[in-house]
Structure formats: C-alpha cells, structure tokens
Amino acid sequence: MTEPSVSYRYFVELAYSGAPFCGWQIQDNAVTIQGTLEEAFSRILRETIALTGAGRTDTGVHAKKYVAHFDTSQFFNEQDCLALCKKINSYLRESIVVRKIYQVSNDLHARFSAVSRTYQYVISLEKNPFIVDFSYELHRNLDVNRMNEACKILHKYTDFSCFSKAHTQTKTNLCTIQKAIWKREKNGLIFTIQANRFLRNMVRSIVGTMIEVGQHKISLDDFRKIIESKNRCEAGLSVPAKGLFLADVSY
After folding, report:
1. pLDDT of residue 4
2. Average pLDDT of 79-90?
3. Are residues 76 and 159 located together in one domain of the fold?
4. Mean pLDDT, rounded, for 52-62
5. pLDDT range class, residue 49, cuts 50, 70, 90
6. Which single residue of 100, 107, 139, 179 could bond 13 by disulfide (Cβ 3.0 to 4.6 Å)?
7. Residue 41: is its pLDDT beyond 60?
8. Of 58, 80, 133, 222, which residue is the catalytic one?
C-alpha cells in the first residue's frame, strides 16, 4: 500500500504595484499577480505550485501587504524560507516583492482564515508626477469633518449592497465595518477602512459617494438613505483603482 504523501503549507507575505497587472486572479492572455508568482515559485521549486490569495484585487489596485499560501511536499526551515524568498525576488519583476515566507498549519487558509482586511484610498489634492500612479488627483475642496460623519454612519449598517458591483457570485452582501476614517495628509487625504470582508468594488464606490458628501452634493441623511436602498445605482461613481491599496490582512 502506498503511504500518503506529506504536504506542508506556507504563507507568503508580499507587496506589489498593481499598475502593470490585470489584477490578482490568474486569467488567460493577461498578466496577473497570481500568474506571475506561480510561474516564479514553480520554476524555483521545480514543481507546479498553485497559490491561493487572501482575496481578489482588481486591475490597477496595489497591495502594501498581501497574503497567499501554497502547499508542497518540500519542507523548508526558517533559513530555507529566507533563501527561497531571495531566489523568488531575484526572479520576479520589480513591481512585486516577497517580504516573508513561513510555514503554517495545514488548516490555516490565506482567504478563509482572515478575520479582517484593511484598505486605504489615497487622494492627492495637487498635481504630483511622483505619485500619479498611486493616487487619485482631485482639485476640489472637501469637507473632511463631514466625510468622517459619514464614516460613523457606516458602522450602523451591515448590508452594503449599494456599494457592491452588480451580478457577483457572493452569497451575501453583509459586512462588519470595524474602522473607517479620513485623515488629512500633506497635500492629500487618506481613507482607511477595515472590515471582516469586502464586496467587489466596495471601497471605491464608498469613496466616490463620500466625495459627494464632502462636496456637499448630498447630505448625511442622503448617505444613510443610499445604504438603506441597497441599490448600487443610488451610490456615487467608483473612483479610479490606482488610488486603492490593500494595506493589511489579519489572522
């Protein structure tokens, strides 16, 4: 009788610029982060490696911290993981960096074991060629205090259908917002939002709607009614992907 093969699971922590990629998820005839990483790991480890990510990031979206896992019959100790990390980075294009590789228990899952994810959206209030690919340039006065009042309203709801891309395969549009805040930085604004899960296009449509709040185009009561409508057509336009970052994934 053939003995069952031993399998080890490893987490990969990485960061990337989404500008050159058609999102995380592997696609035919498109350059993706998942596809690029799987090619690198498979070539270095000399076996077919499939990576499972913490979630899907769309075309042009960046990640300061992204987590994926892979399974292999090969065992790597801490020093082996450090060496593998260096080999993978030497193979990867400059827009992706692997920060850490480490063994985890086989029941830990990069997507399903995550308890929260944190996104940030960057708005530049001036023309700046050095951050043009990593921010949304917006030359308008925004009432940040009012936008933060809208953030407080988010905490009172769990159904965010109004901010979800239509016709997705998700079974539920319920999310628990754990943190939402706007902060004024030098020559710009940063929106930080943390939740147990996010819907497709959710952060970008929330930001687009909050910009209308900040411009006094809609009231806080309007913002509340938009959420209660559960209708994507009632919310604001989605802001460009290039200003969005996956900032953290917690387990």
Report:
1. 58
2. 98
3. no
4. 95
5. very high
6. 100
7. yes
8. 58
Q: Does 126 lie in the same domain as 95? A: no
Of 45, 79, 104, which one is at a domain's C-terminal end? 104
Packing angle of the helix pair 144-154, 202-214 (nearest 10 deg): 140
The model's confidence at residue 1, banded by pLDDT at 50, 70 and 90, is very low
Percent of the chain with pLDDT over 90: 91
Indicate which CATH number applies to the domain containing 54: 3.30.70.580
Residue 171 confidence class, pLDDT cut points 50, 70, 90: confident
Give the model's pLDDT for residue 3: 55
Q: Catalytic site residue 222?
A: no
Structural domain count of the chain: 2
DSSP result, the chain? -PPPPP-EEEEEEEEE--TTSS-SS--TTS--HHHHHHHHHHHHHTS----EESS---TT-EEEEEEEEEEES----HHHHHHHHHHHHHHS-TTEEEEEEEEE-TT--TTTT--EEEEEEEEESS--TTSTTSSEE--S---HHHHHHHHHHHTT--B-GGGSPSS---S--B--EEEEEEEEETTEEEEEEEES---TTHHHHHHHHHHHHHTTSS-HHHHHHHHHHT-GGGS-PPPPGGGEEEEEEE-
Final residue before a domain boundary, out of 104, 138, 153? 104
